[in-house]
Amino acid sequence: MSIQLILIALATLALACILWKRRKLYAAAATMNGPLALPIVGQLYLIFGKKRGDDFLKVFNRYAPHYNSPVGVWLGPMLVVGINNNPDHFQTVLNSPHMLNKTYHYSFFRVGRGLFAAPGL
């Protein structure tokens, strides 16, 4: 009984530490628009409604007109921020030196090479 209680306490403590370290991310995500996020999976449930031949970006483009920019989308534990029809936001992102390296989402979702998916310098 005491071992189970210790394990539960350790798991609760670990979860509290993770949430505390990510508190700024959660605060920023709370200010963004976006579809309903479910616990653990985020908005991954939207991908299950995709038609054969649709890529990942086409699925989210269906929902883009419903939300103002920037749009926060949770893909599991990762927050992905989308920009929709706001030139000032595009300029800020494209001029940022932190945006040269691409995340693994580009290869995982097979985003081809283009203006916004070009490799970093």
Automatic annotation (TrEMBL):
One of its GO terms (molecular function) is oxidoreductase activity, acting on paired donors, with incorporation or reduction of molecular oxygen. It comes from Anopheles farauti. The chain crosses the membrane at residues 26-48. This is Cytochrome P450. Keywords: Membrane, Monooxygenase, Oxidoreductase, Transmembrane, Transmembrane helix. It comes from the Eukaryota. InterPro entries: Cyt_P450_sf. The keyword Transferase does not apply.
